[in-house]
Amino acid sequence: MTAPDQMRPTPPVRVIRRPEDLDRTVLAGVARGAVRVELAAELTAALSRSRRATLADLTGRTVYGVNTGLGAMSGLRLDDAAQSHHQDNLMLGRAVGSAPWLRRDQARALLAARLRTLLHPAAGVSAELCGFLADLLRTDLVPAIPARGSGAAGEIIPLAHAGAVLLGGGQVLDEAGAAADAEPALAKAGLTARSFGPKEGIAFLEGVPGLTGLAVLAGVATRDLLGQVVTGTAAAHTAIRASPDPLHPALADSDELATVLAGLRALRGDGAAGALQAPVSFRVTAPALAVAGRAVAALDAAADRALSAVTDSPAHLDGEFVGTFGFAGTDLTAALGTLTAALVHLADLGAARLHRLLDPRVTGLAPQLSPAPGLHAGLAAVHKRAAAVTHRLRRFAAPALTGAIETSLGQEDVQSFGFEAAECLDEALNGLREVLACELLAVIQAQRLGAPRSPGLDALDAALPAGTADRPFGRDLDTIIELLAGGGLTGRAG
What we know:
Layout: H1 4-7, E1 13-16, H2 24-31, E2 36-39, H3 41-58, H4 80-92, H5 104-118, H6 127-138, H7 156-166, E3 171-173, E4 179-181, H8 182-188, H9 200-205, H10 209-240, H11 255-268, H12 280-283, H13 285-308, E5 315-317, E6 320-322, H14 330-357, H15 360-363, H16 380-393, H17 418-448, H18 458-463, H19 473-485
Parallel strand pairs: 1-2
Antiparallel strand pairs: 3-4, 5-6
Helix pairs in contact: 2-5, 2-10, 4-7, 5-6, 5-10, 10-11, 10-13, 10-14, 10-17, 11-13, 13-14, 14-16, 14-17, 16-17, 17-19
């Protein structure tokens, strides 16, 4: 039998000639294993030049984190013996996280974003360090990085876990997502552990590459899901024969809304309206989708800024070592929070549209989409599930950006809690997908009971059990959620 790793196609190689070549789109491909990156000779030569300049300018200077302690211990000057292993020690004592770990694609996104920011000459790291990160991605050796408990100014805890793997310590994820010792995995991949050179350890721990990578993946997932909401909303419009008035092109106040309205019109079709006005939840979905589209565009823009910014601290700038705010993550965290709130609102609207689909006054069908009211419950309990999901999502709409807590012996410290913001958005994505699955199941049930059909759902209809009688509808919802998560039913959402 062919081994699983031998059955996988080799992804195409993207040669990185400038830092800008490892952009948001390439990063997303690398995180998902669809692209491999290779550093061009001219880029490694440029890294070697910036590395030599950095080492030369370190001579005779006191530089934070290079020959001093960190945080409250920054006033402690390290002697030569301590400096020789200080950069490695920065990882070991800060790898204090535990499971749950980031998913494999999320951890790969962190590594890819870390590689991108270390390519900036201000980081002053060696070409060998950058090459090692590229090798980790090439061999799919994925560090076990904690998804929670990173409450620091920056990402020193999750990045320490990633850095420990380079040293031959730490843990990596196996195919099942469980943690295993890194040293044998490195050997199996043909890689040799390496130490961090002067300033490389502190450079590795600075910035917010984890948050940046998570934001990039969330942006891709959100765009896919918004397109699916367009498909589901249009199908629901068709099923209840909603008035097309709210989809009129003259109502567009922006490019985002114009794109959403065009997508809904194209997918709804030309069926006659069953009532003078569409229910409110149907009328206001298009502008809510446009709001979410603008929010994901803002998140993408924030990720672009994070990838190109100086994130090292101290950064090597014009021959000096400059303390920066690259660890803040404020821009990304704020954008994540805005998008989360927009998605939670869309979930509320989905549950409301689902309620209307169960209303015989709206559909002209049997109550609760039951084939035999009283004998069969229909989809009443499916709506209850959607209501429970939307209620749960509301707790994730609170902004993670607030709530600084003093750490590091009480010295001033401010955290943006970026990983927490990313987790909230992930919950909103999963919840909205679940609510959409409930709505799509109701549309299929309505179609089978005589509602106008939406051709875009034919494949989904065929994937579900035949008939309209009561059955364990949770299994149907699992099928729909899996289809949505795999990228099916994607429409247009701007």
